[in-house]
Amino acid sequence: MKIRTDFVTNSSSSSFIIARKEELTDKQKEAVIDYVVNNMLGEKVPGSKDDIDKMLEEMYIDEDYKEDICKAMENGLSIYQGYVSFEEPDEIGYLMEGLWKALEEADGNNFVGIDTDLEY
Predict the structure, then answer these.
(1) pTM score > 0.70 for this model?
(2) Which of 61, 70, 86, 110 has the least C-beta neighbours within 10 A?
(3) What is the pLDDT of residues 75-116, one digit of tens each?
């Protein structure tokens, strides 16, 4: 349980304690990459220009981006879309806790969450 002992005005931070080796193991590096890819880089948008039109409409994205999106697709890139919520303060904590869990599951001998409860 977190107990604030100092004066805080409008703070949205929380402390944590982890134990880890200085260098991440290959398993942990793979876990970080997998976590980032699966949770922080959006979901793949189907590849047709009609799908892009639908995405722009549904997400209220400025039509000016369509040209850049189409150019990226012509260059062989896939389009991904996602969001980050700044309305819900737990979003970043959720991502941090998920990353720590992935690292611990990948190699628990070299990474241990000690105080990873970001609630206060």
Answers:
(1) no
(2) 86
(3) 888 888 777 665 666 677 788 888 989 999 998 888 888 878
Distance separating alpha carbons of residues 19 and 109, to the nearest angstrom: 10
Q: What is the DSSP-derived secondary structure letter of residue 9? A: S
Cα(118)–Cα(82) distance, rounded to whole angstroms? 24
End-to-end CA distance of the chain: 7
Cβ count near 28 (within 10 Å): 21
What element of type H or E holds 20? Answer: strand 17-20
Q: Residue 14 corresponds to which amino acid?
A: S
Tell me the DSSP string of 76-111.
Answer: TPPPEE----SSSTHHHHHHHHHHHHHHHHH-TTSE
The residue whose two tokens read 């206060």 is 120
Task: DSSP letter for 10, please.
Answer: S
Q: List the Cα angle 97/103/105 in 5-degree steps.
A: 100
Contacts 24+ apart (CB under 8 A), 8-13: 12/89
Provide the 8-state DSSP code for 115.
E
Q: Among candidates 1, 7, 14, 24, which has minimal Cα distance to 92?
A: 14
